[in-house]
Design a protein that fits this description.
The chain has 108 residues and is of the alpha/beta class. It has one domain: Glutaredoxin (3-Layer(aba) Sandwich). The mean pLDDT is 94. Strand 2, helix 2 and strand 3 form a beta-alpha-beta unit. The termini are far apart. A 5-stranded mixed sheet has the order 1-3-2-4-5. The protein contains 4 helices and 5 strands.
Length: 108
């Protein structure tokens, strides 16, 4: 997986301290839907290099972070900018949906 992994401490630093525009996918290794979504994000990542970052959280390794956002099921893609939650996409997503959401976040 070429997406950078976040744990609780790194999440705080990236999302709230740096406030960079980014998405975080909450996924699980054993989730077949997650395994279909992650490559979509990996394919999009180079198009937004330097403007928008891509991260992931393994919900089995970091349950507290997953529970903090009251998420139900995986995959869940949360979007952030300037330390503010900007919305999410859930379950199986298409590349166009993700690109559209990223554009919305960058232009907000």
């Amino acid at each position: 997986m070429s997406l950078e992994k976040l744990n609780s401490g790194r999440f705080e630093e990236v999302i709230y301290d740096k406030g960079e525009p980014c998405l975080v996918i909450f996924s699980r290794k054993s989730c077949h839907v997650c395994q279909g979504v992650v490559p979509v994000l990996e394919d999009l990542q180079p198009q937004f290099e330097g403007k928008f970052s891509f991260y992931y959280v393994d919900v089995e390794e970091d349950k507290a972070l997953y529970q903090r956002f009251s998420l139900k099921g995986v995959p869940q893609i949360l979007f952030f900018k300037d330390g503010e939650y900007q919305g999410k996409l859930a379950s199986k997503v298409e590349e166009e949906d993700v690109k559209e959401k990223i554009t919305d976040v960058l232009n907000s």
